Amino acid sequence: MTASTRGRHGLPENPAGAHFAPGLRKTIVSSTGEFELSLLSQTPAKGLELPPLERPPQVNVVTTQEEVLAATILVAGSAQRLMSIYTPNLEPDLYDQTPFLDIVKRFVLARSFAKVRVLLGDGSRMIRDVHRFVAMSRRLTSYIDIRVLGEDAPKPHPGYIIADDRAILYRTNAAQWDGIADLDNPAVARMHLADFDSQWVTHAPDFGYRVARR
Question: 81-119: per-residue pLDDT in tens?
Fold first, then answer.
């Protein structure tokens, strides 16, 4: 791939005239090594039909809620020690879905060192709304940590999930479904992880969301 084909976030842009299969769109970048599905530490809940990824699965363009959810599950399922989630409002279409919640539960309960970090743009919905991920975080406080950006939240707010420092699903604007999913791109994952870390250390934990509604 030449430099001219990469977007501003280090991920390839959709080439003109590219043809995509149903579900997650076709791989548009060749891989330097074959990805083994056995590396995924968790599998989605039985009965969930995920759009197929081609082998070797590298960069996939996503444009619909179904594609983004499928990519979210694949990225989360590849995590071995750390998930980092950047979201404006804990998007329930992604993070309040049973297949994703099952992966998170298995991820943290199977590893004493596992950690899920969430940087949230608006924390008001955590107290006002019923959200199963928030409920899970209240029970698993040693493993799931949520911090609120508040007035520091960018506009438009990007949305992404990073597994360890390798797999990433990135959407420039979380209000839209368009994005890029890559299961093996350490360079891009680390670039966004560094930005996540810099914001993480400057925002104190928000313990208010841990108070369950009576």
Answer: 999 999 999 999 999 999 999 999 999 999 889 999 999
- Three-state DSSP at 151 gives helix
Q: How far apart are CA 158 and CA 121, in angstroms?
A: 10
How far is residue 69's CA from residue 99's CA, in Å, rounded to a whole number? 9
Which residue type, as a one-letter code, is found at position 51? P
Alpha helix (H) residue ranges in the chain = 65-77, 92-95, 98-109, 124-128, 132-139, 186-200
Task: Please state, in angstroms and rounded to a whole number, the distance separating the CA atoms of residues 128 and 2.
Answer: 48
d(CA 150, CA 120): 8
Where do the structural domains in the chain lie, given as residue ranges?
A: 55-209
Q: What share of the chain is helix, strand, coil (3-state, %, to 5)?
A: 35, 15, 50
Q: For the ranges 28-42, 153-167, 172-186, 199-213, which has the lowest average pLDDT?
A: 28-42
Burial class (CB in 10 A: 0-12, 13-18, 19+), 207: exposed
**pLDDT tens figures, 5-27:** 455 555 544 444 433 334 444 33
Measured distance CA(61)–CA(3) in Å, rounded: 18
Q: What is the CATH number of domain 55-209?
A: 3.30.870.10
| Rounded-to-integer distance, Cα 153 and Cα 126, Å | 16
* Of 37 and 100, the one with more pLDDT: 100
pTM comes to 0.71
